[in-house]
Amino acid sequence: DVKAYCDELKLSWKDTRWSVMADRWTDMKNKTLVNFLVYCPIGTMFLKSINLSDTPKRLWMFCVRFFIKLYKKLGLRMTCNLSLIMQQIKTC
């Protein structure tokens, strides 16, 4: 069951190291999409996909704000290097 798997992953985030990952890509209709995922030793979980076709110039700031909101929402300690992640997104 997918929900049970995701619930297990979420529970493990408080006790294990984890990383938020983002992947920017363009689909066949030229839409700019960003997928957000969380990786931990137990597995990887998809969080959200966002269409940023209308805001490519603001992609950098959008991602920074999204990561900060995500950390606050999940109540997790920051265990990853946010600036390194954002550099990777910016260079895509």
From TrEMBL:
Classification of source organism: Eukaryota, Viridiplantae, Streptophyta, Embryophyta, Tracheophyta
Protein known as: DUF659 domain-containing protein
Domain DUF659 residue range list: 1-59
Pfam families: DUF659 (PF04937)
Organism: Nymphaea colorata (pocket water lily)
Highest taxon, organism lineage: Eukaryota
